[in-house]
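Internal tracking record. Fields below are filled automatically when a chain is submitted to the structure queue. Please do not edit lines marked as system-generated. If the sequence contains nonstandard residues, flag them in the REMARKS field before resubmitting.
Queue: standard
Priority: normal
Entity type: single polypeptide chain
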Amino acid sequence: MAEKEDKPKGKTHEQHMEWLRAKAEEVSAKTVESVSAASVRVQLPMWPEPVRAVPNGFLRSALFGAIRKGRRRYINGEQIAAIEGVEIFYKGESLDQGDLDVWESVLHAVRLQELGSQCRLTSYVLLKLMGLTDTGKNRATLHTRIERLVANALTVKQGRYSYMGNLIAGAAKDEDTQEWVIELNPKLRPLFAADQFTQIEWAVRRTMNGHQLAQWLHGFYASHAKPYPVKIETLHKLCGSEQGVMSDFAKKLRKALDAVVMANMAHGEGFSYEIYGDLVHVEKKAKGAQRRHLAKKAIKPQKPCN
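SYSTEM-GENERATED OUTPUT FOLLOWS
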């Protein structure tokens, strides 16, 4: 038998009834609030078709590095080089700019639906999003990259937000129809808060397809509204370069920056650079609002780690 709730001492019957009504309304309000919270749709921001969105911490680190082709190093829970204010610990095969292309394309498709739900798309559609033709070789590469994005674990601390998990929560494929079923972890959403991600001009990035360092530099500088001077040695560390001799890296860096200049120019974007001593100075003049998603307030530039 349920216990009878005692009437508050010193209260009349009418006061007691009023107290019960107030308690009932309080419980009802909490129930409605709980149901409403549970039914909130977790979804990525709706960025425009010509761009791809990436968390700033990923663009300002060596998570998706500029690494050479061939056998990849397995990273066993090490801290990844990143600018001050970003911490990334990663476990899995090292990732490159091609892996970032796949992840960006998956995000681009998933943004149209609820995070955590099953996103169904064929290899043809996914390759088309990446600007690639639907060939057997490209399908095989896509499969390998998706496997790599599933089989990892990372901890990311970006500003006030942190995330622990993998880049793709799970994936399955129908080998006959080439239909993929891909899921992303809804807990990724805070990394796409208003001032925590950058919208990358996809056409500019695709112009540099296959040029790992140029694509990394494009993403890094796109994530800064007003780039600050950065040491060549710092860029070497942040991009995850495997170049052992710094003078050789400096030569590759100049060529890569030239490629970024040409790619931006081809699409009406302004990008220029100068190297004074060991410092790289970059200036940008993007058309329109640059389609870069930032908070309404200007973000103070962050200094790179040394």
